[in-house]
Amino acid sequence: MSASISGLLKPWTPRVFLVRWSRYNPYYLDPEVRKEAYSVPETELSAEEKDQRELKALRPIKAATSGISSSVFNDPDISKFINMMMKHGNKILAREIMTETLENIKRKQVEKYHKAPQGNKETIECNPNTIFHKALENCKPVVGLASIKKGGRSYQVPIPLSDKRRRFLAMKWLITECRENRHRRTHMYEKLSQELLAASNDEGNVVKKKYEMHKMAESNRAYAHYRWW
Amino acid sequence: MALHRLSFRLRQTVTHVRSLHTSGCGQQQQTLAVESESEPFSIIRTSENDPACQSEKHIGQYYTLPSATISTLFPHGLPWRYQQQVKTFNEACMMVRQPALEVISYLKKTDSSKPPLRYLFYGLNGSGKTMSLCHTVHFCYTQGWLVLHIPDAHLWVKNCKELLPSSYNSSRFDQPLQATEWLRNFRITNERFLSKIKTTQRYVWTKREFTEEGSLLRDLVDHGISRIKSSSDVVGALMKELRQQSGQPGSDFRLAVAVDGVNALWGRSTIKKANKSTVDPEELTLVYNLRKLMRNDWIGGAIITTLSQTGSLYTSKSDYLPQELLGERGFDSMDPFIPVSVPNYSEKEFESCYLYYIDRHWLQHPQSKY
User: Fold this and answer.
1) Do B364 and A126 make contact, defined as CB atoms within 8 angstroms?
2) Closest chain A residue to the Cα of B88, Cα to Cα
3) Nearest-by-CA chain B residue for A129
4) pLDDT (mean) for B213-231
5) Which residues on chain B place their C-beta less than 8 Å from a C-beta of chain A?
6) A111 closest CB neighbour out of B88, B365, B367
7) Which of B83, B86, B88 to mutate to test the interface with A (most CBs of A within 10 A)?
8) Which residue does chain A place closest to B85, by CA atoms?
9) What is the structure's pLDDT at B249?
10) How many CB atoms lie within 10 A of CB B293?
11) Whole-angstrom Cα distance, residue B73 to residue B91?
12) Do residues A98 and A81 lie in contact, with contact meaning Cβ atoms separated by under 8 Å?
């Protein structure tokens, strides 16, 4: 009896909180997850970094998502790639494929390293993370094309791309190319490792697609002034 | 934690080096940088490649297996991940560990005129039971024993594509594919013995095919490989011949039976007969003959076995003890045996493994090299 009366006396909070499409107030700042950022002593910070630290002491911080961690193996590019490879929310499978891909790349490179003559050994890169980043860099287009309608006709107009858009396009091209243009019985990690190794050497279908995009943009230079932003 | 101690271990070797080179401090600064890199490799590797000469002071060190030995002795025995590692690192290095050394020391003292002792490696998943078995098999091979190595007994009780009724005994079933594959690998391993040992009995396979008494074992094995239908019976005959002839005063070989996943022989199987009822492992010719080998009613050799939960059927994932995996029937058949526990890596072995991976450029993260 007393429990129900005291239940009525507390301030009202809704039982159900809508979370799925909720957006943080822009006032909230992003969390800094990397341990190295906190081990820098006070003296080595520049003026802007000191201001940033004071700001973080006063402003509220967003909660960290469950996809990032402060481990040494956490890499934002690789996490984004895993998310883009994921189908139907099966993140476990996407992560498995990514780890198998990295292991496959490392195996091929280490095998090549051990079989190479002494002089060539330094040129062979064995770290799969550096190979992934180099391949991603080689696949990122510099300019993109946008379809702009003027006078009833649509023109492909060359436009500058933001960093985020470039990274997205590189990853998207890698994944679609691996999914479509290979024999259906090869595993995804095999296809991905072949494509990433080729891309890090500036070969392969994805860098070819990047260069074709550049050529289209170059050929449509005349319409560049159609862009108004 | 272990990495922290690792740097201490290296520092100890460096100070040890320093005490040897007492001439001139200036020289030490240059030699230190070179020696602290070459020292780890001699800590983890040993030049003692013969298992008979390895002892307790080599525990935790890696010895190299020559590639010719790998292709003859282990066409089918090594774990898959180890085979991949051999291909990647371009060398086959195995760590010397306590359980294998113990069994090797017992094998050195075996008496050829007594019945064989049964050794059983048991431990948690991934603790190194199959690798210990392979180390022991390498020892037996270098000592000139005849090695009968069954890589995984679980493969014989599951995923059977062809099941034929046995020609010898109508209540049993044959597995031609598994038998021929095993015979092929057996022939690769034991070439030198096949031309020396002769059969003691006449075997009649079909109305027109038979093997005379006194013919070489090589002919028996070749017949089994070419005539797939009677290959399981050939396997049974081979096991019987070897069992009867080993340890006899006339023959000069000793038989080492190495079985991985011995708990499959007394477990359940997933093979179904034509009327959808399950086949008992006893009704399979291969398993029946292998069980006869496991009995110690012959002389002049040893039986080295391993338990395995990873490939086993209808066992819980946390089972690893002999009582749990062998079951009642299996334990009673294997009793008495010498159980050898295979634990996970100790601190020293872990550090050794870590240094080996760094040496082979397998650990690529910049923070893995302290």
Assistant:
1) yes
2) A111
3) B365
4) 90
5) 84, 87-91, 360-362, 364-365, 367
6) B88
7) B88
8) A107
9) 80
10) 23
11) 15
12) yes
Each residue's pLDDT tens digit, A140-163: 999 999 999 999 999 999 999 999
Confidence of residue B317 (pLDDT cuts 50, 70, 90): very high
- Chain B residues closer than 8 Å to A127 by CB: 364-365
Q: Between B362, B365, B367, which is nearest A110 by CB?
A: B362
Q: For B277-290, what is each residue's pLDDT tens digit?
A: 999 999 999 999 99
Q: Does the distance separating the beta carbons of A111 and B87 come in below 8 Å?
A: yes
**Region of residue A64 (left: phi > 0; alpha: psi -120 to 50; beta: else):** beta
pLDDT at B293 over 60: yes
Q: Which residues contact residue B29 at a Cβ distance below 8 angstroms, ignoring those fewer than 6 apart?
A: none
Chain B residues with beta carbon closer than 8 angstroms to that of A113: 361
Q: Which residues of chain A have pLDDT under 50?
A: none
| CA–CA distance, B101 with B58 (Å, rounded to integer) | 10
Q: From the CA of A24, how many Å to the nearest CA of chain B?
A: 35
- At residue B205, the 3 state secondary structure works out as coil
Q: Tell me the longest C-alpha to C-alpha distance in chain B.
A: 87
Among A219-223, B56-60, B188-192, B207-211, which stretch is predicted with the lowest mean pLDDT? Answer: B207-211
Cβ-Cβ contacts under 8 Å, A106 against chain B: 362, 364
Burial of B99 (0-12, 13-18, 19+ CB in 10 A): buried
SS3 content of chain A, % helix, strand, coil (to 5): 60, 10, 35
B49 vs B66: CA distance, rounded Å: 9
Q: pTM value?
A: 0.86
Cα–Cα distance for residue pair B197/B202, rounded to 1 Å: 15
Contact state of B361 with A126 under an 8 Å Cβ cutoff = yes
pLDDT score of B14: 42
CA dihedral for B313, B315, B320, B322, sign (positive or negative)? negative
pLDDT at site B303: 94
Rounded to the nearest 5°, which phi and psi values hold at A188?
-60, -35
